[in-house]
Design brief:
Oligomer: single chain
Radius of gyration: 17 Å
Shape: globular
Strand order of the largest sheet: 2-1-3-6-15-16
Helix content: 25-40%
CATH topology of the largest domain: Rossmann fold
Number of helices: 6
Length: 224
Amino acid sequence: MDTITKAKKAAGEKAASLVQPGMLVGLGTGSTAYWAIEKIGQMVKEGLNIRAVATSVASEQQAIALGIPITSFSEIQQLDIDIDGADEISEDLQIIKGGGGALLREKIVAHASRRKVIVADERKYVKTLGKFPLPVEIIPFGWELVFKSIQSLKGAPTLRTREDKPYITDNGNYILDCMFGAIENPEQLHHQLKAMTGVVETGLFINLKPTVIIAYENGEVKTL
């Protein structure tokens, strides 16, 4: 296991330690959230009684394989804690997510959770957002119009593909990965994008007031 993977594992396991008996838990998506789910699965095997909502099909399949009981928003209204990863976290704790394609479900789960815990390795912690392309989930019909509208905002969008075909989210949508340069005002950009017809959601997670757990290659884990 390389040092970055070890750091991700340390961050994920630190976040899992925050889960208490009887909690309703949001299970995130991505390479760091993966380790949190693995640890929670181990805790469930040891007798921890929880229920969980997953933010993606992949995370749900992982959780079921580990024996973590899955529920849904048809049965519950609010989660106690949500543990998820991030693609970038700024110094003022604004976040870009969606590199794994699950940004819409991740945002629904985050806003339904009393406590938001973001886990990441040190490479994701930046002064200002924008080096990582901003994912924007869009309706497939007429996606070219949204593409041009984002260009008019001085963004440089790219249609996400897989095996030379448009990448399809768990919700049946497309994703545009957009370069805006340094994002000095994430809240303003989020609202500008959301106002475009055809945009479902952006990967800007604004003002979540999260607990952020950063793991470093030297083995240190910091909570922000």
